[in-house]
């Protein structure tokens, strides 16, 4: 009769498996990409009960330096991540499995990012005092994501500065309308927000509004500054700015229809606008918004050929021509901003990029 081998420890299990020609559990765990652990939880005290040898690869620690030595596991978690990790362990002990990521301190003092897959183990009648889980080192992925975020942010700032510089090109030639596009951009974005446009669409709207008059670089400078009314031919030259703006912008791969915003910002709901005589919903929403913001800003400001008409006159014009010339929803959102939201146009001296 065979007797079962006496097993006193994990090492003994390993010996039995090795004798049977099977891989030892310790070797299986060592081959794992993860470091496995068991933690004993007692309130905010969380102490390692067991950890696999891979902790050496992950944190430069030995099993012995962790088990029985780390009085409180939480002290090894990055201070910024501690509250969330403790909160998560509470959730886990209530019976949920979860994945979370945080930083653990390496033996050399720096931190490694770990992806932790964790669940509770009930301990008989005492409930879930133990959590078991596995850490996978995701430091490189986290650092790559960080670098990507920084690059994207740098690109975003470069884009803002580039568009700001393009806006300034027009305004250097046309000092009478200094700050016009910046103020239109500010108002247009507020209207967009009032109308519930997504953050992304609103950002595109701001870019489009910032340079909606870029085509004025193709209009003779003396026309821009003319203190008297224009004749028909001159008016046509002036009106060409929206088509010129489109030509300038159309090959830039903005993630928004910025070139169309420039082209359509003088289109009007009844088809009386230019350059294409588009009607109602055929006009891009952003262009309908810029169109209203453009009129309001222009009427509220001084022009070479007239004094400022004031914001009340501007809002009266928008209200009177809502539906016929201006999108009714846009006109109403604009009126609500000034009347109920206490909105005022920003100072014209503010630089194009300071309002982002
Ligand atoms: Fe314009």
Give your account of this protein's structure.
The protein has 356 residues and is an alpha+beta fold. Strands 2-1-5-4-3 form a 5-stranded antiparallel β-sheet, with helices on both faces. The chain contains 14 helices and 5 strands. 30% of the residues are buried. The longest helix has 35 residues, at 139-173. Helix 7 crosses helix 12 (285-300), helix 7 (180-194) crosses helix 14 and helix 12 runs antiparallel to helix 13 (311-320). The N and C termini lie far apart (84 Å). The chain folds into 2 domains: 10-137, PAS domain (Beta-Lactamase); 147-339, Hypothetical protein af1432. The structure holds fe (ii) ion. Residues 212-213, 241, 265-266, 294 line the site of fe (ii) ion. Fe (ii) ion binds next to loops.
Q: What tags apply to this protein structure?
A:
2 domains; 356 residues; alpha+beta; binds fe (ii) ion; Hypothetical protein af1432
CATH class term of the largest domain: Mainly Alpha
CATH architecture of the largest domain: Orthogonal Bundle
**How large is the radius of gyration?**
33 Å
Figure out the total of helices: 14
Strand residue content: 5-15%
CATH homology-level superfamily of the largest domain: Hypothetical protein af1432
CATH topology of the largest domain: Hypothetical protein af1432
- Strand arrangement within the widest β-sheet reads 2-1-5-4-3
Helices and strands: which structural class? alpha+beta
Number of domains: 2
Order of helices and strands: HHEEHHHEEEHHHHHHHHH
Amino- and carboxy-terminal Cα gap: 84 Å
Helix content: 40-55%
Report the principal-axis shape.
elongated
Average pLDDT taken over every residue = 89
User: Main sheet?
Assistant: 5 strands, antiparallel
Heterogens: fe (ii) ion
| DSSP, total strands | 5
Low-confidence parts: none
